[in-house]
Amino acid sequence: MQQAIIDRLKARSGGDILTDTCGRCAWLADDVHDLRKVSREMAKTTTGLTNYEYVTSSWSASFSRATAGLAQRHMIDVLWAVPLQAAESEFAWPVAEVDGAIYMRWYSRQRRFIRV
């Protein structure tokens, strides 16, 4: 599973779009990946989805364990200050501009935003 995740991350460009509950968007930097989207993309190509298109709990647990191992071995970098390309005004998550670069602060313990 870990090698499949690394292969998938190298094959995709990153720069995913985030949408808050009100429909406002933010765009991740080109080399930043949203692991929720990566998990769903990989689950679609295997048997990781239910009949209702939800990711199964066994897939989610396996993916989470694999990403934890990759993070422990420093094969992926988990980001807590997430670089953005752009964000719409009044985006739900806190956004700050530092030296011309835009960052979003990720407060959750969840490993969601990563860089390879």
Task: Give an overview of the whole structure.
- By secondary structure, the protein is of the alpha+beta class.
- The chain has one domain (2-115).
- Helices cover 32% and strands 27% of the residues.
- The chain has 3 helices and 8 strands.
- The chain has a 5-stranded antiparallel sheet, with no helix packed on it.
- The two termini are 16 Å apart.
Label this structure with key terms.
5-stranded antiparallel sheet; alpha+beta; globular; 3 helices; 116 residues; 3-stranded antiparallel sheet
Task: Spell out the blueprint of helices and strands.
Elements: H1 2-11, E1 17-19, E2 25-28, E3 32-34, H2 35-45, H3 57-72, E4 77-78, E5 81-87, E6 95-98, E7 101-105, E8 113-115
Antiparallel strand pairs: 1-2, 2-5, 3-8, 4-8, 5-7, 6-7
Short structural description:
The protein is of the alpha+beta class and 116 residues long. Helix content is 32%, strand content 27%.
> Could you give the order of the helices and strands?
HEEEHHEEEEE
Number of helices: 3
Q: Order of strands side by side in the largest beta sheet?
A: 1-2-5-7-6
Share of helical residues: 25-40%
Number of domains: 1
